[in-house]
Design brief:
Blueprint: E1 2-6, H1 11-16, E2 22-31, H2 34-45, E3 58-60, H3 88-92, E4 98-101, H4 107-116, E5 119-122, H5 128-132, E6 135-142, E7 151-165
Parallel strand pairs: 1-2, 2-3, 3-4, 4-5
Antiparallel strand pairs: 2-7, 5-7, 6-7
Length: about 180
């Protein structure tokens, strides 16, 4: 089924999504990869305030290439999600409702998704140049020293993703 969704992604909306749904996201999402996730969880351990909201938010596992003149962002394809598996449950416990990446997730992450009514979306790997056309605005909001792995606030329009794992744990990779 095809669905148009506007962020933020509430738990109620997340519960309506099923593995295999085609979704077009419009609104604000955030990007973060390995190094940013590590810093986020280190900040949590220290009791510090995080540099982005997590409640009802979607994090795209992305490290974009530099933007060419006239572009908002460079190639914006997904990175392998399993590298964030050791960090994801802590962020899901804070209300994060969506993740975008590619590849399988661990049983621990899937259990946390079920507990927290969150979903995992896949973006098409190898289509970063096409995906970047759906990003209308990109702004570094934290960890600028990480370069491409900084946290970006992204404004997207009709950003295409597929629900791979829904909040009941149904997994498209296993179906």
């Amino acid at each position: 089924m095809e669905k148009q969704l506007h962020t933020p992604l509430t738990k109620e909306t997340a519960r309506t999504l099923q593995a295999g749904d085609y979704v077009y996201l419009t609104g604000t999402i955030y990007s973060a990869r390995d190094a940013a996730h590590k810093r986020l969880t280190e900040s949590l351990a220290k009791g510090e305030t995080l540099p982005l909201p997590l409640e009802n938010e979607i994090i795209y596992y992305l490290g974009p290439t530099p933007a060419r003149p006239g572009q908002v962002i460079g190639s914006a394809g997904p990175t392998t999600s399993s590298r964030m598996d050791k960090y994801a449950p802590a962020l899901l416990d804070l209300g994060q409702t969506g993740m975008i990446g590619k590849g399988r997730r661990s049983d621990v992450v899937i259990a946390s998704m079920k507990k927290n009514s969150a979903v995992y979306f896949a973006a098409v790997g190898g289509a970063g140049a096409l995906l970047s056309k759906c990003i209308k605005r990109a702004e570094v909001i934290a960890y600028e020293d990480l370069g491409a792995e900084a946290i970006y606030k992204l404004e997207v329009e009709n950003f295409p993703v597929i629900v791979v794992i829904d909040c009941e744990g149904n997994n498209l990779y296993d179906m």
